[in-house]
Design brief:
By secondary structure, the chain is of the alpha+beta class. Helix content is 43%, strand content 29%. Strands 1-2-3-4 form a four-stranded antiparallel sheet.
Amino acid sequence: MHRLSSWLLGLLLIVTAAPTWAGGPPLVDADKTAIRHVIESQMAAFQKDDGAAAFAFATPTLRERFGTPADFMSMVREGYAPVYRASQVSFGQLEQSDDAVIQHVLVVSADGLVHEALYFMEHQKDGSWLIGGCLLTTSDLKSS
């Protein structure tokens, strides 16, 4: 049941995240670096239990939906434990389509299971990138 509710929450975050890159120009190295930095910075904030810092990397739409850093962190702890306390992180493919920019990230949870987090990134009017949603998938693979 826990996996199903986590999956549904992730899907809800994705479906409600308004894509902002639609038909945008190809990503340049600076975009790719910025996207990775945003995700790494949010994960670092999770490691320190710094809810305000972690919340700041979410889009305005997500911040409005959760209201407070405390509510956001509660959701992350309950539904995204592998991301919240990742023991290993590896960045994979950065995908760009007409309506989304998705960063694939492999994370190993404290119990050694391998997960893939799909980060839906949104380009802001000021040129920055923020996290518009995350879908966490779980496998039966264990890290060695």
